[in-house]
Design brief:
Length: 253
Amino acid sequence: MYNLIKSEWYKLRKDRSFRTLAMIIVALSIFWPLYWHFDNLLDGDPLFTGLESFQRAISGNTFIIKVSLCILAGFFISSEYSTGVMKNMATSGNSRMKIFTAKLFVYSWGVILLSLLFPVFNMVISTLLSGFGAMDDQAVALLVLRTMLGTILYSASFASVAALFAIIFTNSGKTISASIIFFLTIDVIFTNIGEFIPVFETVYENSVFSLVEDIGGISPSNTELWRLTVVPILTFVGCGLAGCWVYRKKEIK
């Protein structure tokens, strides 16, 4: 298992799509706070502090995560079917469950790294330009830590969903298209259906697709924290097991 993870990590570091996505996100992360800093400066509006910039970045980071993980799933996982890598791995003597698990963990780690770039760079740059902000040090540290951990959990849960798509479609183009459509429309679909069938609204409100919007909350209750933590973990495990089952049953040509 260790060798499989090590091999997947090497492939991720060399993957062009991962490098390209990282460079694009870093570029956006540098441009965005600079733009708002000088725009507010010219208009005479209050400057965004590091904490404010971090919170704003978190609210917009979900879209970046969804698009990035869909693209990475297509090129890092699905493309290996067409290149023959997946077939070679399946005949290497390792169980398919171990192969998929190693790939899922490394892919999820890649998505997590990409998900942290935008909020972290926004916070650092805005802090250098206009200070971090005035809040109780302990409260700020707890807020940032909780939000970062939430970003990690929900990025991993989204990654498990995208990995399932990648294993099902086995084609980078189909995986990217299907997963992007799914992630960008699932909110609208469940909301519209929920107007007529209340159970769909309840399911959606307790899913990672809805709860991800609450990870930046300043003072969530213990019940909310419990739900925000358990739901993404269950989603990751559930989709991971589903992906293992699909990969074990799939005929690899």
